User: What shape does this take?
Amino acid sequence: VETSKLNQVVEIRGTKPGPTSLVLGGVHGDETCGVEAITALRDSLKINRGRVLLAYGNPRAIQAGTRFSQANLNRMFKPDAALSADERASYEYARAQELKPYFAQADAALDVHASFTPNSRPFVICEPQAREVAGQLPVDLVVSGFDQVQPGGTDYYMNQLGKVGICLECGYLGDQATNKIARDGILAFLQARRHIQDAKTSARQQTKIRVFFQYMTKTSNFILAKRFKDFEQVKQGQLIGQDGSQAVVAPRSSAIIFARNRKLAGEEAFLLAAS
Ligand SMILES: [Zn+2]
Assistant: This one.
């Protein structure tokens, strides 16, 4: 996709009045399922009601095939005072400011992601006010609590505006199955929002858990004790990793998410969630 197209937000209109929804892919540039879904829908999506805005999150990172270029775009939606000078000087901060007016136009936003953890599973991140819409997405697991533990994402920003913010995690970013989850998930979202009526969806039984803890590294050498799958159960006191000379253990029995080795202090190393 050309740079000019990556920067452009496309608007699709229905013939009948209705709500406005925003769909984003590629907020992390190496999560290609959302990028491919947005590309396909920009050419093909037809809706009955309202307006749908289709946006690529991070054009520079999409072109480079990287998660981000200078800062994590999905942490740039915090208030300015909560961002560092380096973060405010980043490309991603500027991109967040470009995108904010589109969030302001929309009543609900769906942001499509994939996990860097192999064998991850599809799940949704949202807060309770989004559960009616999230309940129609093709996932079995709904995770809340991110706004407190890891603020600054697109869903956080929508929630701050008093709107519906949903993040759809489609599975492992290296897995081709994520493409179908992304596309089905977007269509289910558009149906739940009553823009279209032809997607095959129905309310699902979903497990609901809540993130309660994020570990931030204290040294420039954080190494996991093992490779953890997303949502693998850890027991209270179980060794999760070594941060410099310090052993890091689970504060309580819970499910671990997004665990990774880190080479800088002050970085996100893993999350814990429980029912
Ligand atoms: Zn992502």
